[in-house]
UniProtKB/TrEMBL annotation, chain A:
Domain of life of the native organism: Eukaryota
Keyword Amino-acid biosynthesis set for record: no
Chief subcellular location: mitochondrion
Biased amino acid composition, Acidic residues: 17-46
Annotated Gene Ontology cellular component terms: chloroplast outer membrane; mitochondrial outer membrane
InterPro entries to which the protein is assigned, alphabetical: Bac_surfAg_D15, BamA/TamA_POTRA, D15-like
Species per Swiss-Prot/TrEMBL record: Brassica campestris (Field mustard)
Compartments in which it is found: Mitochondrion outer membrane; Plastid, Chloroplast outer membrane
Protein name: Bacterial surface antigen (D15) domain-containing protein
Region feature Disordered, mapped onto this chain: 1-61
Membrane topology: Multi-pass membrane protein
Family: Belongs to the SAM50/omp85 family.
Domain POTRA: 69-146
UniProtKB/TrEMBL annotation, chain B:
Domain annotation Thioredoxin-like fold: ranges: 26-120
Composition bias type Low complexity, residue spans: 251-260
Organism listed in the record: Brassica campestris (Field mustard)
Pfam families (UniProt xref): GST_C_6 (PF17171), GST_N_4 (PF17172)
Descriptive protein name: Metaxin
Keyword entries, A-Z: Membrane, Mitochondrion, Mitochondrion outer membrane, Transmembrane, Transmembrane helix
GO BP field: mitochondrion organization
Major subcellular site: mitochondrion
Amino acid sequence: MANPTENLDPNPPTREPEDEVEELNGDEGEVEEEEEDDDEGEDDDAVSNPQSLKTESLFRRMRSSPVPVRVHDVIVKGNTKTKDHIIEAEVDGVREASTLQELLEASRVANSNLRALDVFDSVNVTLDSGPPELPGTTNVIIEVVESKSPLTGQIGAYTRAEAKSSSVEASLKYKNIFGYGDIWDGSVIYGCDNSAEVGMGMYLPRFKGLPTPFSSRLYLSTQDWLNFSSYKERSLGLSLGLLSSKYHELVYTVGWRNLIDPSRSASKSIRRQLGHSLLSALKYTFKYDQRDSYLRPTSGYAFSSTSQIGGLAPDSRSLRFLKQEIDLRCAFPFGFYNAALNLGVSGGVTFPWGSGYQNRPSSVPERFFLGGNSSPVCSLGGPSALWGFKTRGLGPNEPKRKGDDERDFIGGDAAVTAFADLSFDLPVRWLRERGVHGHVFACGGNMAKLTENEFRNVTAPKLLETFRTSVGAGIVLPTSLFRMEINYCHILKKQEHDKAKSGFFLTFSA
Amino acid sequence: MEGDQDTSGFTLVTRKPCFGLPTACPNCLPAYIYLKLAQLPFQLAFNSTFPDSEELPYFESGTYVAYNNEDGGVIEKLEKDGIVNLDSQLQSLPDYLSLKALIVSWLEEALTYEIWVGTEGVCASKIYYSDLPWVIGKVLFYKQTYLTKNRLGLTKENAEQREKLIYKRASEAYEALSTRLGEQKFLFEDRPSSLDAFFLSHMLFTIQVLPETSVLRRKLLEHGNLVRYAERLKSEFLEESSSSPSPPLHSFPSSFSGKGSKPKSKPKTEKSEEEKKFKKRARFFLAAQFLAVVIYVSVMGGGSSDEVEYEDDD
């Protein structure tokens, strides 16, 4: 869903102050009114000389010291459907501005916020003189043009944290039906991890006075893990975005989950997990990403922590678990060839809670699985990606039903991954201009089972001894939809039954 | 999803025990009795979160698995794969097939009707859905009731006629089996067979699980030799594993009645304790929610000015 905090236009077409701003006379402390100009723009040439002199004088004053001003009124025009308070709520900063400099900056921010609502075709913020009887005041006029066609469709590629892989999403959005800046959407999502989802969502920028947007999503999804773990997961649920800001996100999900095995080839652990369960979980994510780029970071660092608690229902029969994931990324630039060293470490642990938790296994969908075709440089959602290893290709595994030589990878209750990636520009200018660059990398990871008293057998030396590692090099092709890597990986260390081999691999990250 | 006791040897995975039976599911009980009649040592494991699975019960040994929806059923699959076979040389007998048809069609249909329609699913809820969250249990229960009525061909117009036909066939089956059995120990050649497993399962379920008001139960109890047959087999083959001997079958009418005797008050006490626990947890949950909302509003209300400034950074 659209998030106003992520779609800011740094240079919105705010009206230039020289057209409509009051000219303030700092010596006398009085305000001389300027003639108002229409939005269509009058011909300023007749008064341009004295006008431009006044404007220059104003700019000199603004450069030297703050120019005091008070906002008298915020006038909203052009909204036939959208409620006034929705627009006014996005421009709160304007009312609190006490100087002209603050007012201009707040106006820029307000313009960006309103555009980010995604329900207007255009937004103009104009500063006009206040009433003549109140010197030193200004009126802020907000003119919006509501979208003529509220129905829009889009197709895109995304990386969704809960899916831990890239996905293609096609959605239809109906905007501003009730005038609250509400966006309703229906979407179909197909993920690279054999998942499919149909959902309907609703997004409200303001909900009952809450400062952050509210979103809700009703979904029906299936994830097919038959080839990897001999089960299929079907879920019907409702997800509520309770808090969404730049650094924090709080989501509550309630859903009915069903694990089935139509192939009838599951291993013993998976067989025991088949059936219905009720998921009622709260997930809090703190994300701080100061890297200069998501797809090719060359400087900065990022930290992410996701905490999840399941079983938030009076019914003790719902799925009870705790899950914690942490990601840390750092990027160090070198001065030549736009080279940068990226380092990253991710870890996670999950455990059931409630009576008998020590003897109970964790739920398979909540466990960690490593491997796949996404790049660890881009992913910031817990331990998952590992170059050179196939999807769900390592970790605890069991033999499938007799007659099937394959093995089921049943996931781990704890997982850790680490990587180092050195990226650099290629000597060919044509490739450099298109952002195509090379990289060499090394990565490693491991998983362990902790539940059913297995945590007593987990020791650090044992984990290090069975640590999987790989190295490689490749070329990164950033496209408008995703980042693609063509890599050659060499597996340095793997364990018996791991699905990994040295060779060429493609990865996709959106 | 409760664990089993052993990772090697034979394991039978069934639905949970209830009503004094090692497994209260009428589809799982025949397999349990069959293995007991064959005197094959095995462990019992339970799956109580998949009431609509067609694979239960299943038998496993190492990586070998015999599911119930393969080869005609788990008993047939075990016989076919040579794990255990009580029916060798019996299948050729003319009576065998006709009795088998009687048990697995008429009696099975009558039992299905009685569980889901005749007794309005009262015992079905406890057998299949008691370990599932309430919402999921209710939806699955209604879904299964609807599917069962469809399978039995029941409509509003023909419900009464179908019921009469089902009970009539059940009566005739009981009569035929009673005549066939006489005072013998087993149905065939004085040795246990899969038909004994199916029929004993039907009888134990009908007597121990169905309420006293059940029409099918009343019809079955009219045949004293059948009740004695069930009693004998139960005490000889099934009570070896149980820690305490269960009361005789013919006395169950008094101990399992709905008229306020001890076993009835026990579930009632348990239910009220469960209810108290549930209410206490619900109150705690609501209080925690309220507290979280209050904290959130007070914290976010104070921090709102910080949150709006985030657009400045890029």
